[in-house]
């Protein structure tokens, strides 16, 4: 499995890299931070009515769509983890997430 500890990048650069990794379909784990802070939406998620994109971008924050599902997420001081597991070898998602969360806690402390 390829483990990538990435430097801070823009939201668009992070999502492009995640999409590239997914298209390659090789097992990978990527750990990264966001610079500048950003808000990410899940794949094809509508922009919430309360989000004024003009104000958000004027404040120097980025808005991006993730190539995966899920809901809205705010990023800034967090550490994000991307995981690519080809479908034929992918364990149940609940098992995978449990393993990732436990590993992240061990790696970064509690």
Unreliable segments of 5+ consecutive residues = none
Strand pairing plus helix content: what structural class?
Answer: alpha/beta
CATH topology: BirA Bifunctional Protein, domain 2
The number of domains is 1
> What amount of the residues lies in strands?
15-25%
Please report the total strand number as a whole number: 6
**CATH 2nd-level architecture:** 2-Layer Sandwich
Question: How would you describe this structure to a colleague?
Answer:
The protein has one domain (2-108): 2-Layer Sandwich (BirA Bifunctional Protein, domain 2). It has a three-stranded mixed β-sheet, covered by helices on one side. Strands 4-3-5 form a three-stranded mixed β-sheet. With 110 residues, it is of the alpha/beta class. 33% of the residues lie in helices and 23% in strands. The longest helix is centred in the last third of the chain and has 16 residues, at 93-108. The protein is built from three helices and six strands; from the N terminus they run βαββαβββα. Strand 3 (38-41), helix 2 and strand 4 (62-65) form a beta-alpha-beta unit. The radius of gyration is 15 Å and the shape is globular.
In short:
Helix content is 33%, strand content 23%.
List the helices and strands and how they pair.
Elements: E1 2-5, H1 11-24, E2 28-32, E3 38-41, H2 53-58, E4 62-65, E5 73-75, E6 80-84, H3 93-108
Parallel strand pairs: 1-2, 3-4
Antiparallel strand pairs: 2-6, 3-5
Features:
33% helix, BirA Bifunctional Protein, domain 2, single chain, 110 residues, globular
